[in-house]
Specification:
By secondary structure, the chain is of the alpha+beta class. The protein has a single domain (about 1-159), classed as Phage tail protein-like (STM4215-like, 2-Layer Sandwich), CATH 3.30.2000. Helix content is about 25%, strand content about 40%. It has a seven-stranded mixed β-sheet with strand order 1-5-6-7-4-3-2. Strand 2, helix 2 (about 35-40) and strand 3 form a beta-alpha-beta unit. The longest helix is centred in the first third of the chain and has 20 residues, at about 5-25. The mean pLDDT is about 90.
Length: about 160
């Protein structure tokens, strides 16, 4: 019997998987990571896209209900080689995410925490793009921060 990951991790991993497969078919040499620690290692070169779930809210489904309607805040950070590439990647990512993606429930076989199995379990839908902007750290910034962009979006899991 396997062990399933919790919903927050499934939302994050489903988004990562969707972008990974999209980049694989449409772009060359994009590194996709889920941790800033990975972005700043010397072994990974630009361009890099870092996707992470950074916040979750749990509003009630309706007034007086104890059923929650979780909303997840996903941050997509772009670390580009140039301003043009930054803009192209930002537009591409928004165009891919706007329609949502397949939601997977991820699990791993008992005793094996390195391999994840995934099962389709609905869709993740974008309910709001909160931000889509350049981050300016100035000309003296680290090479990886010279052409930075952040896209923030609110997502919910739909059946």
């Amino acid at each position: 019997m396997g062990s399933s990951l919790r919903e927050s991790r499934n939302v994050e991993l489903s988004c990562l998987y969707y972008l990974k497969t999209s980049f694989a078919s449409d772009w060359n040499d994009i590194t996709l990571v889920k941790s800033f620690k990975d972005v700043y290692t010397k072994t990974i070169s630009l361009p890099i896209v870092c996707v992470s779930l950074i916040d979750k809210s749990n509003p009630a489904l309706e007034i007086g209900s104890t059923t929650l309607d979780p909303r997840y805040l996903i941050s997509v950070n772009i670390f580009a080689r140039s301003e043009g590439q930054r803009l192209d990647l930002a537009d591409y990512i928004v165009s891919k995410l706007k329609d949502g993606w397949v939601h997977y429930t991820h699990s791993h076989v008992s005793g094996d925490n390195t391999t994840l199995d995934k099962t389709i379990d609905g869709r993740d839908q974008v309910t709001e793009f909160i931000g889509d902007s350049r981050l300016d750290f100035g000309n003296s910034a680290d090479e990886k921060d010279l052409h930075r962009h952040i896209i923030s979006l609110r997502v919910r899991k739909a059946s």
